[in-house]
């Protein structure tokens, strides 16, 4: 039987008295595209953080392709194949697109970058260029990040999350703040990701979420209240009651 890419069993996360995620059990199969929806404060980012290890669960277990990763640190999970983006950009504004991708490829911290600037023929540079190409940013290799549009920054963030060749890619609100004109490009990029990659995304934009994914999990008050195919979610009574008038 195929192991799920991600298996959560009764995962919980507390912050003091606040139960941000409560007994979440779900499987995401290899190659699946999964959206996590829900109103503000539902626990979506906290659930992401339990999977990536930024805030490990306070209860339950997490497995990646059958390997228990519950107690691992974030960098160990990255090494085992989890890549992610954050709601808040982690790009280095004063550096170029190529330099940002190079840093991600080499797994560097910016402080060490000055010692290790990319040289010609460096394998890391070739890989950084390849990622730029996949993210349709090849024409902007020498552009400083602070001069990029919001949409281009989002594309770069996805490219950086792909640098470690993850098996599971987790995107936290990839469409947040994008202009309507930037959305089709993001959607195209998401759809072009190789099917070998498992994709999990948090998204408030229903159109993007439902167009880019196969299955949707809806969270409310730390609990997954609905799990359904993306083409059947909009009419679901629970979803309607959550989203009608919620401003999303
Ligand atoms: N580090 C933290 N310390 C304390 N409480 C936290 C922390 N992170 C999240 N929370 C709380 O956990 C709950 C869930 O927050 P979370 O950010 O996971 O929700 P969300 O569904 O991602 O919301 P949004 O859509 O607004 O990003 C909220 O009540 C939030 O205030």
Automatic annotation (TrEMBL):
Stated name of the protein: ABC transporter ATP-binding protein
Keyword Nucleotide-binding recorded = yes
Which keywords has UniProt assigned to this entry? Answer: ATP-binding, Nucleotide-binding, Transport
Q: Which GO terms describe its molecular function?
A: ATP binding
Q: Could you tell me the superkingdom of the organism this chain comes from?
A: Bacteria
Q: Which Pfam families match?
A: ABC_tran
Could you confirm whether the keyword Glycoprotein appears in this record?
no
- Entries under InterPro entries matching the protein: AAA+_ATPase (IPR003593), ABC_AA/LPS_Transport (IPR051120), ABC_transporter-like_ATP-bd (IPR003439), P-loop_NTPase (IPR027417)
PANTHER family tied to this protein: AMINO ACID ABC TRANSPORTER ATP-BINDING PROTEIN (PTHR45772:SF7), CONSERVED COMPONENT OF ABC TRANSPORTER FOR NATURAL AMINO ACIDS-RELATED (PTHR45772)
Residues of the ABC transporter domain: 6-246
């Amino acid at each position: 039987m195929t192991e799920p890419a991600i298996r959560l069993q009764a995962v919980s996360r507390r912050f003091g008295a606040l139960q941000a995620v409560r007994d979440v059990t779900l499987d995401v199969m290899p190659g699946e595209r999964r959206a996590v929806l829900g109103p503000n404060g539902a626990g979506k980012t906290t659930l992401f953080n339990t999977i990536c290890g930024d805030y490990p669960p306070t209860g339950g277990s997490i497995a990646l392709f059958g390997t228990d990763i519950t107690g691992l640190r974030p960098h160990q999970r990255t090494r085992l194949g989890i890549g992610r983006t954050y709601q808040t950009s982690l790009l280095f504004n004063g550096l170029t697109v190529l330099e940002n991708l190079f840093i991600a490829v080499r797994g560097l911290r910016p402080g060490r970058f000055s010692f290790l600037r990319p040289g010609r023929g460096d394998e890391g540079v070739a890989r950084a260029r390849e990622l730029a190409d996949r993210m349709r940013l090849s024409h902007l290799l020498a552009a400083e990040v602070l001069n990029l549009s919001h949409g281009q920054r989002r594309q770069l963030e996805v490219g950086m999350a792909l640098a470690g060749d993850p098996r599971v890619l987790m995107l936290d609100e990839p469409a947040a703040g994008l202009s309507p004109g930037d959305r089709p490009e993001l959607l195209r990029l998401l759809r072009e990701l190789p099917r070998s990659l498992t994709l999990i995304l948090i998204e408030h934009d229903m159109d993007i979420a439902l167009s880019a994914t196969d299955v949707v999990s809806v969270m409310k008050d730390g609990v997954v209240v609905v799990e359904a195919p993306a083409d059947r979610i909009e009419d679901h009574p629970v979803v309607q009651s959550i989203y009608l008038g919620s401003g999303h």
